[in-house]
Amino acid sequence: MSDTAAEQLRRLLYLLPRIADGEEHPIDEVASLAGVSREALLAELGTLVERYDAPGGFVEGVQIYLEPSVVSVFSSHFQRPMRLTMPELCALELGLAIARASRASDEHAVIDRALARLREAITALPANERHEELRHAELAFAGSAAHLAIIRRSLRDRRKVELCYRSGGATSAARRVVSPYTLVFSSGMWYVVGSRDDGEGLRFFRLDRIEGVTLTDERFAPPDPGTIDAVLRSGRAFHAEAPATMTVRYSPRIARWIAEREGVPVDADGSLTMEHPLADRAWALRHVLQYGPDAEVLAPAALRAEIAERLDAMSRG
Amino acid sequence: MSEKKAAKIQRLVDLIAALLAHHAPLTFERLVEEVPAYRGKSLAAQKRMFERDKLELRTFGVPIQTVGEDGSEESAYKLPARDFYLPYLAVATPRGTSSPRRVDRWGYRSLQTLTFDTDELAAIVDGAARVRTLGDPTLVADVDSALSKLAFDLPVGSVSVAEDERLLVRGAAADPAVLQMLGRALLARKRVTFDYHGMSTGASARRRVEPFGLFFLNGHWYLAGRDVDREAVRNFRVSRITGLTVNGAREGTPDYEVPSSFHLREHARSRQAWELGDAPPVRAVVEFRGDTGAARAAAALGAPVPGCPARRAFEVRRLDAFARWLLSFAGDVVPVEPPELVTACRKLVDRTRELYERVEAGGRG
After folding, report:
1. pTM score > 0.90 for this model?
2. Which of A116, A118, B75, B125 is the most exposed, fewest CB within 10 Å of its CB?
3. pLDDT at B22 > cutoff 70
4. Which residues pair with B68 in a beta bridge?
5. C-alpha to C-alpha distances, B292 to A63, B277, B285, B311, nearest whole angstrom
6. Which residue in the set A18, A61, A91 is minimally distant from B146, CB to CB?
């Protein structure tokens, strides 16, 4: 069956149980229910109305009466939806598996029960096993699932949290009251995006650097619409309000990967030189040094000097 | 809509209705009487049409059962109501259990009732929301269809989902049309051919692959499959695939089978760069001299070393990748053993340092 035919059959089997009660239903409402235009709905229902080939005395499985603005459907066979199909189960299972990976272990039982119940609602077909394990999704998890659970609750209830947070370059943790606006997953890590009570604007907090979370009773107002979108538009999991940047040259050996990630072309010689927002010097050091001699800070000079000093110290052991 | 397609949908609905209308199995001859579109054709044409319809409905998920040998003269077909209709669904809350609207007709009375609790329902809706962020239209259609069925009895729409969670994808996302085609090829076990932009060469090459699975890892979709020409299982980032074609020959017949030894979940497991590859793992010990947030998070990835609280052990397959990772901590994490790792790290530091010295001498910076 073609995709469009399957989609149409799926839509009919969705609609029929909802309208096959013999009552008149406004066509516009039914079209809205089906998520299609009025014209598309009429065309689809028309397939079941315009029956030229039915033999005399044939009792139809579905009787549809179309009037200019209403539709009435009679059917004793389609008064409930079809069971879930194996692909539908697998798609939900994928989502539940992603959710499970970032949930505390005491929350796993709920997910497992939900999945077991869904399995009781599927159609049993010999081909079902062909759908198993066709797809897998994983958002790598690092950090505390218990911390994440508290942060999710604070997001839902719009309550501030006190974070015990050790930033990438800090050697001790600091306590900060934060209004968490959203959770983002980027490049293998969960981040809390929120604002600190000290008025330093939006900040990203890596989940694996959060050493403690306490939910407070203090409420916060959500940020202006679009604020978070604007920050996340770059796809980067950090936000720099200051205009500082660093310029890095990546060697031809690794430039293609960086260019693909950043969505820019490589330079004519195969290398790539580009500016990055410089939000955090500790991040900048780690970012550049992870590439060894294949990445070089060109500016600012102070950062170059700092890297050279660190390398000298490492060389001395 | 074409007349042919319209007639087909009508025929399929009639076939389902005919099977549901009878408790006893129906022979092919009885089905011809009950499905008007089968009439007025030669017996051979009728049978071909019915066999195709039956196959398509089963592929769609309708559990038509064959009594006797499928396709034989004596075989009959049935679609038991309890195998087709969604069970009655209820939700248990502290205030009581909901009562789904029951249909007082034959076929519906025997349906069982499945009762979800509110947490289970929330988990399902949450899981569906996560699937929608993955960018695969096939998966989105499937979760939407599943939820619309559940919503017939359950208050799916009133469950709040975690709208405050987002997935950031850097770089090009996978083309939804490519994902759809790969999904179909995977299910039908059909060989695919495509141009793949290899990052190590920077060039595109035509690849012939038997798809084993699709996996989404940290923001990107990958195809895992056997590269026919290289005779090895490879991963391909879907966003780097262009010019995809699916083998259209011998439709309905698989080109290959996925080996029973292949397990997508294990194959796709998230790994650090130093854990990749076929080299035998080496135990590497490192010492954490700094106590920054970055160093602490890194330490959590290793295993304790008895008697040395500042040291952690790692299973490493690629010493070069591990050495670069250690370098990123700028001296807060240093290698202890094996000696090859210590040497590799020292060379890496020296090469990077020389780069800065050379440029400094040339007046840059």
Report:
1. no
2. A116
3. yes
4. none
5. 71, 30, 19, 15
6. A91
